[in-house]
UniProtKB/TrEMBL annotation:
Signal peptide positions (record): 1-19
Top-rank taxon, per record: Bacteria
Stated name of the protein: DUF6843 domain-containing protein
Keyword set includes Signal: yes
Lineage, opening ranks: Bacteria, Bacillati, Bacillota, Bacilli, Bacillales
Keywords carried by this UniProt record: Signal
Residues covered by the DUF6843 domain: 25-148
InterPro entries named among the record's database cross-references: DUF6843 (IPR049293)
The keyword Transcription is annotated on this UniProt entry: no
């Protein structure tokens, strides 16, 4: 009986110690110098480049664009990148992204995490049945702090909705 009890305890200890490891997100965002606003990365986009690697990080070279629907506002400029890479975000993953401003000469300046907000992830299905995944972040250099880090900025949420609406229409 004592051996049986010890065997059961050993099984629980060994079983309890084996957990499935969830990988970190490990994305490196290269953002145009001084940019503030929403950045949306679209994944699984046909005829676009795969994400390059820099060590263990996937590099996302953000492109600044203008949205005609938001002309005349202070949120018409947004960041975007399209890649054929598949979106991989595992439940429980640690967000270990790095963010850098990049000047015209390629010099990188680290962005404090309190100047970033991980806004959302999602997907939409196109008429042809293909699913496009996306993730959205917000970046600021004028409102950095705990409030921005946890809640982002309301005007950038409006910007995000308009950007997603525009790109969904473009993709269909």
């Amino acid at each position: 009986m004592k051996k049986c009890l010890m065997l059961i305890i050993a099984i629980f200890i060994i079983g309890g110690c084996s957990t499935q490891e969830v990988p970190d997100t490990n994305e490196l965002f290269l953002i145009p110098n001084g940019f503030e606003g929403t950045i949306t990365v679209f994944y699984n986009v046909t005829d676009t480049p795969v994400l390059e690697k820099e060590g263990t990080y996937s590099v996302i070279p953000v492109i600044e664009a203008s949205l005609k629907q938001l002309e005349g506002t202070n949120i018409n400029r947004y960041g975007v990148y399209l890649t054929s890479s598949l979106f991989r975000f595992d439940e429980g993953a640690t967000i270990s992204n790095k963010y850098f401003y990049v000047d015209e000469k390629g010099k990188r300046t680290a962005i404090d995490e309190k100047c970033t907000y991980y806004a959302s992830t999602g997907s939409f299905t196109l008429d042809n049945g293909k699913e496009l995944n996306y993730q959205t972040i917000q970046v600021t250099n004028s409102q950095c702090g705990q409030d921005f880090y946890f809640d982002g900025e309301d005007r950038y949420e409006i910007q995000e909705r308009e950007v997603l609406k525009y790109w969904k229409e473009q993709a269909e």
